[in-house]
Amino acid sequence: LNKPEWYLTQVLMWIGNHAKFLDEKIQPILDKVGSSLNAGLEFSRALVMLILEKLAADIPCLLYDDTLFCHLVDEVLLFEKELYSVHGYLSSFPSCMHILSEESCFQRWLTVEKKFALQKMDSMLSSEAAWISQYKDITDVDEMKVPDCAETFMTLLLVITDRYKNLPTASRKLQFLGLQKELVDDFRIRLTQVMKEETRASLGFRYCAILNAVNYIATVLADWADNV
């Protein structure tokens, strides 16, 4: 259960190793009889179906172990990425995201995603470099004077988007968007709390850094507004 990468990698190797044989030996036979099937894709589809069976059996066994469950989700997402980008798998075919979209599994994924995101926010705001810009010494790069915590937070949101963008239904994507909105609001509250501590020094370093953080986040969210 703690090594889903073993069978996921094995399947990717089988797909890659058989590609030439399927393309050069089997595809001409299919073409000769007038079939519209693609030998390589059908081979991939059959192997993915085996993975779906395996996942369906494994997920109930690790649903309440955060570490194992997170590892499984991470490995499945990496597998899917390679399957589509390297092996040309079709989005209309069955995929692992359908398994991750099933109710019990999906709700667990959301819960764990939120838990780890909040932990990340705790660590980024308690870091000594939280209010310092990574690029403070490079003036042409750092016009917005973005503090490290704001940049890390927006990267966190971007990574979450990247993880859920291939979910098969809009309703599931919207639930993840709801989580991101919660995180933005949580970050806003945390910034407000820090700002209240700094009101006596409103021209101080940290107070200005908070204003820069808010401006940066608002700007990036506006840029993302065109992303359906």
UniProtKB/TrEMBL annotation:
Which GO annotations describe the biological process of this protein? endoplasmic reticulum to Golgi vesicle-mediated transport; regulation of ER to Golgi vesicle-mediated transport; retrograde vesicle-mediated transport, Golgi to endoplasmic reticulum
**GO CC terms:** Dsl1/NZR complex
Output the superkingdom of the source species: Eukaryota
The record's listing under PANTHER family reads: RAD50-INTERACTING PROTEIN 1, RAD50-INTERACTING PROTEIN 1 RINT-1
Q: What is this protein called?
A: RINT1 protein
Native species of this protein? Oxyruncus cristatus (sharpbill)
Q: What taxonomic lineage is listed for the species of origin?
A: Eukaryota, Metazoa, Chordata, Craniata, Vertebrata
